[in-house]
Specification:
alpha+beta, five-stranded antiparallel beta sheet, 280 residues
């Protein structure tokens, strides 16, 4: 096929030799199958910010920092330079997460290089040697669903032990190769220690898995694996081999309603201040 404009610089630099075909187009990027020497890889071309349907919500940006103070100020002000820096931080987050998770033993594609908004990485293939299908496209028996759900919970645990939460995990960003699930699409990855919403994001990821597999395994609907994993992590006891039950004991102390009301009031005050200052 004709080389897309965004991939031409990688061809010019000798990073890829040929663009074979478009593999998929998602809410944040377009992925192409490419050839680099004798290897078949994939090139993920990130869409411009105004073309993405997945926006860089504050919840995903929290905890991401740049060392250069000038860049940080520009990002806070939203200048053209700042927006460019924010895009680089967004894209580099996936590369950093992939290297970090691969080192921790998580099943993710191997990254090679991120160059001018294009991530060159391993092409995950299925048992037939072709591009691996998404989990959403794989027919599931109860036995296979249970096996994959168990495997993915372990991947989530391994990720958390490495300090990373996917943040958008679902059947649409999990591939299935000959050995099972492979997790992809990590530009929105969350630092578990640096985000105030880390626990909620983890629980949402795990609930997404339960709801998907619950179509075949109804007993997963309403399970509490996410909350259980997060509680064990916060206690400093989480390991790759931690046994999970999917149940969390009900608290034996009465809820502090006053504290909840104060938190809501504080959140409202902060939002009012934010609106006031943003409009100034």
């Amino acid at each position: 096929m004709k080389t897309p404009k965004r991939l031409q610089s990688l061809v010019d630099e000798g990073l890829i030799d040929e663009v074979s075909r478009q593999l998929m187009s998602g809410k944040e990027a377009i992925v192409y199958v490419v050839r680099s020497g004798d290897d078949v890889r994939c090139a993920k071309v990130y869409k411009e910010a105004n073309e993405r349907s997945f926006h860089q919500a504050v919840a995903y940006q929290e905890g991401r920092r740049v060392k250069n103070s000038r860049q940080a100020r520009a990002m806070e002000k939203g200048t053209r330079y700042g927006r460019k820096m924010a895009e680089e931080v967004w894209q580099n987050a996936e590369v950093d997460a992939l290297y970090r998770l691969a080192a921790a033993g998580v099943r993710v594609p191997t990254p090679y290089v991120c160059f001018e908004g294009v991530l060159l990485m391993e092409l995950v293939t299925g048992a037939d040697g072709n591009a691996a299908p998404r989990l959403n496209d794989v027919p599931l028996t109860p036995g296979l669903a249970r096996r994959y759900h168990t495997a993915l919970l372990r991947e989530v645990v391994l990720m958390l032990c490495a300090g990373v939460i996917h943040g958008d995990l679902s059947e649409y960003n999990i591939l299935v190769d000959a050995d099972g699930p492979v997790i992809i699409d990590l530009p929105q990855a969350i630092d578990a220690a640096g985000s105030s919403v880390a626990g909620a994001m983890l629980e949402r990821d795990v609930t997404n898995l339960a709801n998907f597999f619950g179509a075949v395994l109804p007993e997963l609907i309403g399970s509490q694996y996410g909350e259980e994993i997060w509680n064990i992590y916060q206690a400093g006891l989480l390991t790759a081999d931690t046994p999970l039950t999917g149940h969390v004991a009900a608290p034996d102390t009465p809820a502090d309603v006053g504290a909840v009301i104060r938190e809501i009031a504080l959140a409202r005050e902060e939002e009012a201040d934010r609106v006031m200052y943003s409009g100034a």
